[in-house]
Each structure stands twice: as structure tokens, then as C-alpha cells.
Write a structure and sequence with these properties.
Distance between the termini: 59 Å
Subcellular location: Cell membrane
Protein name: Diguanylate cyclase
Shape: globular
Domain EAL: 23-276
Structural class: alpha/beta
Strand content: 15-25%
Bound molecules: ligand C2E, calcium ion
Length: 278
């Protein structure tokens, strides 16, 4: 550490400088990552709690950057949203996820849904609906197997525009899920205006079920979803205790490390085979 006295004013913080450098480096890398084929998709199974069957999976992007090795989406998705790169990255993710789902169906595995994260920037894109339509046509995926995950903040601005967009997407026959539900600042009346099919309980409510009001919040969301005829899925399920609780509360579906971490395609294939053989 630098020998800076208590009364020395620093004009800049070397650590801050490093952060800015890293950010600039990330942004440069991000611009090239699509061309260089550095992205891959991982898939995490979603389980129907009544049957125990895998009924879907969430597609999650991974970035294998040449020098910096694997970079978490939590680090580069926000940056790609700020820079607008998320639009082309998001389109790549959607196409890849649809292609993979069709490939699994062609390989003879039972059809399942694929959930793809859609960022606010993508929804503001004028040609989003056309792009989704085109990707469905080109990949041949039956729209009923595609679900787009949005977050509550998606319609903070331009509410009517977003609602109209979501209706247009639903008309294609795809599903819409509200991700990280309960963490945003939206009102329940707003929820009622959005044409959604699925509520995804945020993983923060699953942790420490015995502390505070988390158990009450989970059971309230589950009951509300039931009353609204929505499917409800819990994410971030890690323990037997959490799973028990969700089954008791009759939560429809769950996703989390207790079943599996997000996996590359080859591992997902092995999982399918082992299930079919058992
Ligand atoms: P998310 O959409 O809420 O995705 C769930 C995150 O929870 C994933 O992190 C997943 O790996 C992690 N997770 C799954 N099961 C468990 C569990 O049992 N315990 C815990 N603690 N975590 C679990 P990941 O893959 O690092 O993604 C982080 C976030 O990055 C995502 O959060 C999403 O907001 C964003 N993201 C990832 N892929 C995409 C993408 O293709 N497009 C967009 N727009 N955003 C993406
Ligand atoms: Ca998600
Ligand atoms: Ca989530
Ligand atoms: Ca999130």
C-alpha cells in the first residue's frame, strides 16, 4: 500500500483506475466475443414437483474469454445492457436455445420447455417480435416450448408499449415468465396488467426459510399464483428442507443446485440417457 498520510488528498484512486481499466477491457472483449465464438449456453433443469419429471430448462449464457477465462454473466450482462450489446447477444442466445431444444426433440427426448432471459433493452427493440418470429421459423421450434423470462423492472418506463409488446409475443404462442418475482418495486395491479404465464419466486426468499417472513412470502406467492391461474416455480432450491417446504406448499416447479447446476449440452445429454435407462 501507498504511504499516504491521513491528510493527503488523493486525486485518484489506483484501485478505481484498475476497475475502469478492467471495464474498458471487458467492453472491448465483449464486442468481439460473438465473432470469436466465445459464448456458450448452459442449461439448468426445471422439475415438476408433482411428477419429479424434468419439464423444462433455463438457458444461461457463459463467456469463455481468452485471457480472463470464464466470466460470470453477473459481470458482463449488466455491461452489455449498458452498451446495447445485449441486443445481439440476446438474439444469439435465443437462436441457440431454440436450436438446441429442437435438437433434443429430434434426438427423441421428451419435449420440454426452454426458458430464455430477455433484458429490458431487448423489449425496447422495435423489431423484437419479428426477430422472435423469424428465429422460431428458422429453427422450427414449436412456440409452445419457448418461454421468455422478464423482470419486474422491464416495464418501469413505457408501460403501455411493453404491455403491447408482451401481448404480441404471446400471440406467437410462446410463454412469458416473471423472473426474480418479489424483488422489484412493482405493484400487484401492474402484475395483473402483464400477460404472464409463470411466476418465478426469487431465490432470496428460499434462503433462511426459518428466519423473518421468507416462508410466509413464499407460501403467499404460491397461493397468489394459484388464484391467478399462473404456474409458479421456485429457483435457487439447494436443500432438502427447501424442497420439502415447496412440495408441502404445492409449488408447481423448482430449479436449483439440489437437482443440478447449469450444465453444458453434453452433460445434459448424459443426464437424459441415465434417466431413460433407469
Ligand atoms: P437469473 O436469470 O436469476 O438466473 C438464475 C441464476 O441462479 C443463475 O446464475 C444460476 O446459475 C443460479 N442458480 C441456479 N440454481 C441455483 C441455486 O440453487 N443456488 C444459487 N445460489 N444459485 C443458483 P448465472 O447463470 O450466473 O446467471 C446470473 C444472471 O445473469 C441471471 O440471473 C440473469 O439475470 C443473467 N443472465 C444469464 N444468462 C443470461 C442471458 O442469456 N440473457 C440475459 N439477458 N441475462 C442472462
Ligand atoms: Ca432467469
Ligand atoms: Ca431469477
Ligand atoms: Ca436476476
Amino acid at each position: 500500500a501507498k504511504e499516504l498520510g491521513r491528510n493527503n488528498y488523493q486525486f485518484y484512486d489506483p484501485e478505481m483506475n484498475e476497475l475502469i481499466n478492467r471495464r474498458a477491457q471487458l467492453e472491448k472483449g465483449l464486442r468481439k466475443a460473438l465473432e470469436l465464438n466465445e459464448f456458450t449456453l448452459y442449461f439448468q433443469p426445471q422439475i415438476n414437483l408433482a411428477t419429479g419429471h424434468i419439464i423444462g430448462n433455463e438457458a444461461l449464457i457463459r463467456w469463455h474469454h481468452g485471457e480472463l477465462s470464464m466470466i460470470s454473466p453477473a459481470d458482463f450482462i449488466p455491461l452489455s445492457e449498458e452498451t446495447g450489446l445485449i441486443v445481439s447477444i440476446g438474439e444469439w442466445v435465443l437462436r441457440k436455445a431454440c436450436e438446441q431444444n429442437v435438437a433434443w426433440q429430434k434426438a427423441g427426448f421428451s419435449p420440454m420447455r426452454v426458458s430464455v432471459n430477455l433484458s429490458a433493452r431487448q423489449i425496447q427493440q422495435k423489431n423484437l417480435v419479428e426477430n422472435v418470429t423469424e428465429i422460431l421459423q428458422q429453427t422450427g421450434l414449436d412456440p409452445q416450448y419457448l418461454e421468455l423470462e422478464i423482470t419486474e423492472s422491464i416495464a418501469m418506463h413505457n408501460e403501455d408499449y411493453v404491455i403491447a409488446k408482451l401481448h404480441a409475443l404471446k400471440k406467437l404462442g410462446i410463454k412469458i415468465a416473471m423472473d426474480d418475482f418479489g424483488t422489484g418495486y412493482s405493484s400487484l395491479s401492474y402484475l395483473n396488467k402483464l400477460p404472464i404465464d409463470t411466476l418465478k419466486i426469487d431465490k432470496s426468499f428460499l434462503s433462511d426459510l426459518k428466519e423473518g417472513l421468507n416462508a410466509e412470502i413464499c407460501s403467499t406467492i404460491i397461493a397468489m399464483a394459484r388464484n391467478m391461474r399462473l404456474t409458479v416455480i421456485a429457483e435457487g432450491v439447494e436443500t432438502e428442507e427447501q424442497l420439502r417446504f415447496l412440495i408441502d406448499q404445492k409449488c408447481d416447479e423448482a430449479q436449483g443446485y439440489i437437482f443440478s447446476k447449469p450444465m453444458p449440452v453434453e452433460e445434459f445429454n448424459l443426464l437424459f440417457r441415465s434417466i431413460e435407462e433407469s
